[in-house]
Design a protein that fits this description.
The protein has 260 residues and is of the alpha/beta class. It has eleven helices and ten strands.
């Protein structure tokens, strides 16, 4: 499960997955998504694991999204649709892990990083952290309906639209206030806070926790029934604006949007 870009460890009753590309602010490669899927399988298969903790190496970012350079190969609508299907499958599997999941957020949790935080059960962040999906001002693409549904369930449709429309990164104290994350602590206390929370959970009745998690998932799924989003994905990813957004991001300049 451990790769060059991820570190998976089990220290019963805990399992840890560390996204390990600090030089790229832990931007996700395809291999990292595959490692996350594999970690979910191992966590569920191990009866000694009670809590699954996800974190980012380096202290500057939890996950800063998908590695943008990978989008340069997109040529057809199917490329975009299959990408969002893959992300939806990974996050859907993470959501269905039967053990409680906690994100330890240090620094930025953006794009797919925000999606992972919204998918996990609980999150603890440092006071300096910020979270959001800034694609309206960076890339011009769109997140999947599953990611939107989770964020809307956490913070409501009005706040979710404001976050997406502005592309603003929400400081951790504000994110806690609106329900996007659970706890905010000084940087030097985050590891102890996460472990204290994890121990409290691990000491409690596993079946009660498992049932609580699944019941909550079913209720949220009923509130946000899955809808087709392929047309919206194709509109954004096949646009001239998306191509411009990727090029601008990689060249560290501001994109020039045309709406085409």
């Amino acid at each position: 499960m451990t790769t060059a870009e991820t570190i998976f460890q089990v220290d019963p009753p805990f399992a840890f997955l560390t996204f390990n590309r600090p030089q790229a602010r832990n931007a996700m490669t395809w291999a990292m998504y595959d490692a996350l899927l594999a970690a979910c399988e191992q966590v569920d298969a191990d009866p000694h694991v009670r809590v699954f903790i996800l974190r980012g190496a380096g202290g500057k970012a939890f996950v800063s999204g998908t590695d943008i350079s990978q989008f340069q190969s997109f040529r057809t609508p199917n490329d975009a649709i299959e990408y969002e299907k893959k992300i939806s499958a990974v996050l859907g599997r993470l959501e269905r892990v039967v053990k409680p999941t906690i994100t330890q957020v240090e620094g930025f949790a953006t794009g797919a990083g925000c999606g992972i935080v919204a998918t996990c059960d609980l999150s603890v962040a440092t006071t300096e952290s910020a979270i959001g999906i800034p694609i309206a001002r960076t890339l011009g693409n769109i997140a999947s309906s599953g990611t939107f549904a989770r964020i809307v369930n956490l913070i409501g449709p009005s706040r979710a639209k404001e976050m997406m429309y502005t592309g603003r990164l929400i400081p951790a104290p504000e994110a806690q206030a609106i329900g996007l994350i659970n706890r905010v602590v000084p940087k030097e206390l985050i590891e102890s806070e996460v472990m204290t929370l994890a121990r409290q959970i691990a000491d409690n009745a596993p079946l009660t926790i498992r049932a609580t998690k699944e019941m909550t998932r079913r209720l949220m799924e009923a509130r946000s029934p899955g809808q087709g989003d392929a047309d919206l994905i194709e509109m954004c990813y096949m646009s001239a604006d998306f191509k411009e957004g990727v090029e601008a991001f990689l060249n560290k300049r501001k994109p020039q949007w045309t709406g085409a």
